[in-house]
Design a protein that fits this description.
336 residues; alpha/beta; Quinone Oxidoreductase, Chain A, domain 1; Rossmann fold; 2 domains; 11 helices; 25% helix; 29% strand; globular; zinc
Protein backbone atom coordinates (compact mmCIF):
# COMPACT_ATOMS: atom_id res chain seq x y z
CA UNK A 1 0.00 0.00 0.00
CA UNK A 2 1.27 3.45 -0.86
CA UNK A 3 1.63 5.97 1.94
CA UNK A 4 -1.59 7.89 2.42
CA UNK A 5 -3.11 10.45 4.78
CA UNK A 6 -6.27 9.90 6.79
CA UNK A 7 -8.41 11.97 9.15
CA UNK A 8 -8.55 11.22 12.86
CA UNK A 9 -10.23 12.96 15.78
CA UNK A 10 -7.68 13.79 18.46
CA UNK A 11 -8.42 14.89 22.00
CA UNK A 12 -7.33 18.44 22.82
CA UNK A 13 -8.28 18.83 26.48
CA UNK A 14 -9.99 17.15 29.41
CA UNK A 15 -13.33 18.86 28.63
CA UNK A 16 -13.77 16.43 25.80
CA UNK A 17 -13.06 18.67 22.84
CA UNK A 18 -11.64 17.08 19.72
CA UNK A 19 -10.10 18.33 16.50
CA UNK A 20 -9.51 16.82 13.07
CA UNK A 21 -5.90 15.86 12.44
CA UNK A 22 -4.18 14.26 9.45
CA UNK A 23 -2.03 11.18 9.94
CA UNK A 24 0.29 9.69 7.33
CA UNK A 25 -0.07 5.93 6.96
CA UNK A 26 3.13 4.24 5.80
CA UNK A 27 3.10 0.82 4.09
CA UNK A 28 1.66 -1.93 6.25
CA UNK A 29 3.94 -4.38 8.03
CA UNK A 30 3.52 -8.13 7.42
CA UNK A 31 0.72 -8.69 9.97
CA UNK A 32 -1.05 -5.33 9.66
CA UNK A 33 -4.46 -4.60 8.22
CA UNK A 34 -6.05 -1.28 7.27
CA UNK A 35 -9.68 -0.98 8.36
CA UNK A 36 -12.23 1.56 7.13
CA UNK A 37 -14.24 2.38 10.24
CA UNK A 38 -17.97 1.65 9.99
CA UNK A 39 -18.90 2.17 13.65
CA UNK A 40 -17.19 2.86 16.98
CA UNK A 41 -18.63 2.76 20.46
CA UNK A 42 -17.97 5.57 22.93
CA UNK A 43 -17.02 4.13 26.30
CA UNK A 44 -16.59 5.81 29.67
CA UNK A 45 -12.96 4.66 29.52
CA UNK A 46 -12.48 6.97 26.53
CA UNK A 47 -13.59 9.86 28.73
CA UNK A 48 -11.04 8.83 31.38
CA UNK A 49 -8.17 9.20 28.90
CA UNK A 50 -9.14 12.60 27.49
CA UNK A 51 -6.85 15.51 28.21
CA UNK A 52 -3.59 14.59 26.50
CA UNK A 53 -3.21 16.63 23.34
CA UNK A 54 -3.14 14.54 20.20
CA UNK A 55 -4.50 11.28 21.61
CA UNK A 56 -6.81 9.42 19.23
CA UNK A 57 -9.25 7.43 21.33
CA UNK A 58 -11.97 4.88 20.60
CA UNK A 59 -11.47 1.23 21.55
CA UNK A 60 -14.72 -0.27 20.26
CA UNK A 61 -14.24 0.08 16.47
CA UNK A 62 -15.69 -2.13 13.77
CA UNK A 63 -14.75 -1.73 10.13
CA UNK A 64 -14.08 -3.29 6.75
CA UNK A 65 -10.60 -4.47 5.77
CA UNK A 66 -9.39 -2.53 2.72
CA UNK A 67 -5.70 -3.54 2.71
CA UNK A 68 -3.68 -6.29 4.36
CA UNK A 69 -0.05 -7.17 4.91
CA UNK A 70 1.76 -10.04 3.22
CA UNK A 71 1.55 -12.44 6.19
CA UNK A 72 -2.16 -11.97 6.95
CA UNK A 73 -3.82 -15.31 6.21
CA UNK A 74 -6.97 -15.77 8.29
CA UNK A 75 -8.54 -12.44 7.27
CA UNK A 76 -9.28 -11.08 3.80
CA UNK A 77 -9.98 -7.73 2.20
CA UNK A 78 -13.71 -7.09 2.56
CA UNK A 79 -14.05 -8.86 5.93
CA UNK A 80 -15.86 -6.94 8.69
CA UNK A 81 -13.75 -7.01 11.87
CA UNK A 82 -13.55 -5.37 15.26
CA UNK A 83 -10.66 -4.58 17.57
CA UNK A 84 -10.56 -4.26 21.34
CA UNK A 85 -8.54 -3.03 24.33
CA UNK A 86 -5.64 -5.43 23.77
CA UNK A 87 -3.63 -4.21 20.78
CA UNK A 88 -0.61 -6.51 20.94
CA UNK A 89 1.19 -9.16 23.01
CA UNK A 90 4.42 -11.12 22.60
CA UNK A 91 2.55 -14.38 21.74
CA UNK A 92 5.46 -16.43 23.12
CA UNK A 93 5.34 -16.19 26.91
CA UNK A 94 3.64 -18.46 29.46
CA UNK A 95 0.57 -16.24 29.60
CA UNK A 96 0.18 -16.01 25.83
CA UNK A 97 0.74 -19.73 25.32
CA UNK A 98 -1.93 -20.57 27.90
CA UNK A 99 -4.57 -18.33 26.32
CA UNK A 100 -4.04 -15.51 28.83
CA UNK A 101 -2.48 -13.03 26.40
CA UNK A 102 -4.41 -10.25 28.15
CA UNK A 103 -1.99 -10.86 31.07
CA UNK A 104 1.16 -10.78 28.90
CA UNK A 105 4.00 -8.83 30.54
CA UNK A 106 4.71 -7.21 27.16
CA UNK A 107 1.11 -6.44 26.23
CA UNK A 108 0.18 -3.19 24.54
CA UNK A 109 -3.18 -1.84 25.63
CA UNK A 110 -5.42 1.03 24.59
CA UNK A 111 -4.80 3.99 24.47
CA UNK A 112 -1.17 3.34 23.46
CA UNK A 113 -0.59 4.34 19.87
CA UNK A 114 -2.86 6.62 17.90
CA UNK A 115 -4.41 4.08 15.55
CA UNK A 116 -7.74 3.84 17.37
CA UNK A 117 -11.41 4.06 16.46
CA UNK A 118 -12.31 7.76 16.40
CA UNK A 119 -11.08 8.03 12.83
CA UNK A 120 -11.81 7.26 9.19
CA UNK A 121 -9.38 4.34 9.19
CA UNK A 122 -7.47 2.21 11.66
CA UNK A 123 -4.25 0.26 11.21
CA UNK A 124 -3.89 -2.71 13.54
CA UNK A 125 -2.20 -6.06 14.00
CA UNK A 126 -4.47 -8.59 12.28
CA UNK A 127 -3.76 -11.12 15.04
CA UNK A 128 -5.72 -8.84 17.38
CA UNK A 129 -8.67 -8.26 15.07
CA UNK A 130 -11.83 -10.37 15.14
CA UNK A 131 -14.15 -11.22 12.27
CA UNK A 132 -17.80 -10.58 13.00
CA UNK A 133 -20.20 -13.52 12.77
CA UNK A 134 -22.32 -13.47 9.63
CA UNK A 135 -25.29 -11.15 10.02
CA UNK A 136 -23.99 -9.20 13.03
CA UNK A 137 -24.60 -5.46 12.50
CA UNK A 138 -21.40 -3.37 12.99
CA UNK A 139 -23.12 -0.67 15.05
CA UNK A 140 -24.48 -3.25 17.51
CA UNK A 141 -21.25 -5.24 17.47
CA UNK A 142 -19.03 -2.26 18.40
CA UNK A 143 -19.92 -2.09 22.14
CA UNK A 144 -19.32 -5.82 22.46
CA UNK A 145 -15.58 -5.27 21.99
CA UNK A 146 -15.27 -3.59 25.40
CA UNK A 147 -18.51 -3.63 27.40
CA UNK A 148 -19.60 -7.00 26.05
CA UNK A 149 -16.35 -8.87 26.49
CA UNK A 150 -15.77 -7.30 29.92
CA UNK A 151 -18.95 -8.79 31.40
CA UNK A 152 -18.59 -12.02 29.42
CA UNK A 153 -15.05 -12.47 30.75
CA UNK A 154 -16.32 -12.17 34.34
CA UNK A 155 -18.86 -14.95 33.76
CA UNK A 156 -16.39 -17.09 31.85
CA UNK A 157 -13.51 -16.86 34.34
CA UNK A 158 -15.78 -17.26 37.38
CA UNK A 159 -16.80 -20.72 36.08
CA UNK A 160 -20.30 -20.08 37.38
CA UNK A 161 -22.66 -22.97 36.56
CA UNK A 162 -26.15 -22.52 35.09
CA UNK A 163 -27.53 -23.55 38.49
CA UNK A 164 -25.85 -20.54 40.14
CA UNK A 165 -27.29 -17.25 41.32
CA UNK A 166 -25.78 -14.00 40.00
CA UNK A 167 -26.46 -10.36 40.93
CA UNK A 168 -25.49 -7.47 38.65
CA UNK A 169 -24.90 -4.08 40.29
CA UNK A 170 -25.65 -1.14 37.99
CA UNK A 171 -27.92 -1.10 34.94
CA UNK A 172 -25.81 0.97 32.55
CA UNK A 173 -23.58 0.33 29.55
CA UNK A 174 -22.02 -2.79 31.08
CA UNK A 175 -24.89 -3.80 33.31
CA UNK A 176 -27.57 -4.05 30.64
CA UNK A 177 -25.31 -6.37 28.64
CA UNK A 178 -24.38 -8.37 31.75
CA UNK A 179 -28.07 -9.12 32.32
CA UNK A 180 -28.42 -10.43 28.77
CA UNK A 181 -25.32 -12.61 29.04
CA UNK A 182 -26.44 -13.93 32.44
CA UNK A 183 -29.87 -14.88 31.15
CA UNK A 184 -28.34 -16.70 28.20
CA UNK A 185 -25.82 -18.39 30.55
CA UNK A 186 -28.73 -20.01 32.35
CA UNK A 187 -28.14 -18.59 35.84
CA UNK A 188 -30.73 -16.92 38.03
CA UNK A 189 -29.98 -13.22 37.57
CA UNK A 190 -30.90 -10.31 39.83
CA UNK A 191 -30.47 -6.66 38.82
CA UNK A 192 -29.46 -4.21 41.56
CA UNK A 193 -29.84 -0.44 41.19
CA UNK A 194 -30.36 2.47 43.58
CA UNK A 195 -34.07 2.89 42.93
CA UNK A 196 -36.93 1.24 41.06
CA UNK A 197 -36.57 3.58 38.05
CA UNK A 198 -34.86 0.96 35.89
CA UNK A 199 -36.78 -2.09 37.09
CA UNK A 200 -38.90 -2.67 34.01
CA UNK A 201 -35.99 -2.23 31.61
CA UNK A 202 -33.78 -4.49 33.73
CA UNK A 203 -36.41 -7.20 33.54
CA UNK A 204 -36.66 -6.72 29.76
CA UNK A 205 -32.88 -7.22 29.47
CA UNK A 206 -33.17 -10.60 31.16
CA UNK A 207 -33.16 -10.11 34.93
CA UNK A 208 -35.37 -12.56 36.82
CA UNK A 209 -35.89 -10.07 39.63
CA UNK A 210 -34.79 -6.64 40.85
CA UNK A 211 -33.48 -5.13 44.09
CA UNK A 212 -33.30 -1.44 45.00
CA UNK A 213 -30.14 -0.83 47.03
CA UNK A 214 -31.83 2.01 48.92
CA UNK A 215 -33.85 -0.69 50.67
CA UNK A 216 -30.79 -2.53 51.98
CA UNK A 217 -30.99 -2.83 55.74
CA UNK A 218 -29.56 -5.66 57.87
CA UNK A 219 -33.07 -7.06 58.36
CA UNK A 220 -33.88 -6.87 54.64
CA UNK A 221 -30.63 -8.53 53.60
CA UNK A 222 -31.00 -11.28 56.20
CA UNK A 223 -34.16 -12.48 54.47
CA UNK A 224 -32.70 -12.46 50.95
CA UNK A 225 -31.51 -15.59 49.18
CA UNK A 226 -27.79 -15.12 48.68
CA UNK A 227 -25.67 -15.12 45.50
CA UNK A 228 -22.77 -17.18 44.23
CA UNK A 229 -21.44 -14.33 42.10
CA UNK A 230 -21.90 -10.57 42.16
CA UNK A 231 -20.75 -8.52 39.15
CA UNK A 232 -20.22 -4.87 39.98
CA UNK A 233 -20.39 -2.61 36.91
CA UNK A 234 -20.59 0.67 38.86
CA UNK A 235 -17.61 3.03 39.03
CA UNK A 236 -17.66 4.58 42.48
CA UNK A 237 -17.70 3.67 46.14
CA UNK A 238 -20.02 1.07 47.65
CA UNK A 239 -20.71 -0.20 51.13
CA UNK A 240 -18.46 -3.20 50.58
CA UNK A 241 -19.54 -5.00 53.76
CA UNK A 242 -23.18 -4.81 52.71
CA UNK A 243 -22.50 -6.34 49.31
CA UNK A 244 -20.24 -9.04 50.74
CA UNK A 245 -23.16 -9.97 53.01
CA UNK A 246 -25.20 -10.73 49.88
CA UNK A 247 -22.78 -13.51 48.91
CA UNK A 248 -23.06 -17.18 49.69
CA UNK A 249 -20.12 -18.83 51.38
CA UNK A 250 -17.27 -19.17 48.86
CA UNK A 251 -19.03 -16.49 46.79
CA UNK A 252 -17.14 -14.18 44.44
CA UNK A 253 -17.49 -10.40 44.07
CA UNK A 254 -16.24 -9.36 40.62
CA UNK A 255 -15.03 -5.78 40.33
CA UNK A 256 -15.49 -4.27 36.85
CA UNK A 257 -16.21 -0.66 37.82
CA UNK A 258 -13.41 1.47 39.25
CA UNK A 259 -13.82 2.43 42.96
CA UNK A 260 -13.64 6.13 43.75
CA UNK A 261 -11.28 5.58 46.70
CA UNK A 262 -9.77 2.65 48.56
CA UNK A 263 -11.85 -0.42 49.35
CA UNK A 264 -12.49 -0.64 53.09
CA UNK A 265 -13.96 -3.76 54.67
CA UNK A 266 -14.99 -3.37 58.29
CA UNK A 267 -15.65 -7.09 58.79
CA UNK A 268 -12.87 -8.99 56.98
CA UNK A 269 -13.84 -12.18 58.83
CA UNK A 270 -16.22 -12.91 55.93
CA UNK A 271 -13.24 -13.28 53.60
CA UNK A 272 -11.65 -15.86 55.88
CA UNK A 273 -14.44 -17.72 57.67
CA UNK A 274 -16.83 -17.81 54.70
CA UNK A 275 -14.13 -17.90 52.01
CA UNK A 276 -15.61 -14.97 50.11
CA UNK A 277 -13.40 -13.23 47.60
CA UNK A 278 -13.11 -9.94 45.72
CA UNK A 279 -11.79 -10.49 42.20
CA UNK A 280 -10.74 -7.93 39.62
CA UNK A 281 -11.59 -8.55 35.98
CA UNK A 282 -10.37 -6.83 32.83
CA UNK A 283 -11.47 -7.18 29.21
CA UNK A 284 -10.83 -10.61 27.72
CA UNK A 285 -8.00 -11.72 25.50
CA UNK A 286 -8.22 -13.08 21.96
CA UNK A 287 -9.73 -16.48 22.79
CA UNK A 288 -12.38 -15.01 25.08
CA UNK A 289 -13.34 -12.37 22.50
CA UNK A 290 -13.88 -15.06 19.87
CA UNK A 291 -16.04 -17.04 22.30
CA UNK A 292 -18.01 -13.93 23.26
CA UNK A 293 -18.85 -13.04 19.66
CA UNK A 294 -20.03 -16.57 18.96
CA UNK A 295 -22.10 -16.65 22.17
CA UNK A 296 -23.65 -13.22 21.53
CA UNK A 297 -24.64 -14.19 17.99
CA UNK A 298 -26.12 -17.51 19.12
CA UNK A 299 -28.25 -15.89 21.83
CA UNK A 300 -29.12 -12.66 19.97
CA UNK A 301 -27.43 -10.46 22.57
CA UNK A 302 -27.42 -6.81 21.47
CA UNK A 303 -26.66 -3.55 23.26
CA UNK A 304 -29.29 -0.84 23.38
CA UNK A 305 -27.64 2.07 21.60
CA UNK A 306 -27.86 5.76 20.80
CA UNK A 307 -26.60 6.44 17.30
CA UNK A 308 -24.44 9.46 16.34
CA UNK A 309 -22.61 10.35 13.11
CA UNK A 310 -18.91 9.52 12.96
CA UNK A 311 -17.76 13.14 12.76
CA UNK A 312 -16.69 15.86 15.19
CA UNK A 313 -20.22 16.96 16.02
CA UNK A 314 -21.36 13.41 16.63
CA UNK A 315 -18.30 12.65 18.74
CA UNK A 316 -18.78 15.72 20.94
CA UNK A 317 -22.47 14.91 21.47
CA UNK A 318 -21.79 11.26 22.28
CA UNK A 319 -18.94 12.05 24.68
CA UNK A 320 -21.09 14.60 26.52
CA UNK A 321 -23.87 12.03 26.99
CA UNK A 322 -21.34 9.46 28.15
CA UNK A 323 -19.59 11.78 30.61
CA UNK A 324 -22.91 12.77 32.19
CA UNK A 325 -24.04 9.15 32.45
CA UNK A 326 -27.05 9.88 30.24
CA UNK A 327 -26.44 7.43 27.37
CA UNK A 328 -29.07 4.69 27.16
CA UNK A 329 -27.19 2.52 27.12
CA UNK A 330 -24.21 2.80 24.76
CA UNK A 331 -23.39 5.68 22.42
CA UNK A 332 -22.15 4.52 19.00
CA UNK A 333 -20.62 6.59 16.20
CA UNK A 334 -21.74 5.36 12.78
CA UNK A 335 -20.07 6.28 9.48
CA UNK A 336 -22.34 7.91 6.89
Amino acid sequence: MKATTITQFASTNERGEFKSVSTKITPLTHHDILIKILACGVCHTDCMFMGRDGDVLGHEPVGKIVEKGSSVERLDVGDIVGTSFLKSACLDCRECNSGQDIMCQHRIMFPEGNMNGFAEYQVCDSRFAYKLPVGMDPKYAAPLFCAGVTVFNALYTSKILPTGRVAVIGIGGLGHLALQFCRAWGVHCTAISRSLDKKEEALSFGAHDFLASKDFTPEYIENLEKYDLIINTVSGDLDWDVYLSLLNRSGMFYLLGVPGTSIEIKSPDALIVDQKAIQGSIVGGRYVIELMLEFAQRHHIMPKIEEYPLDLNGLHAAVERCEKGQARYRAVLVAK
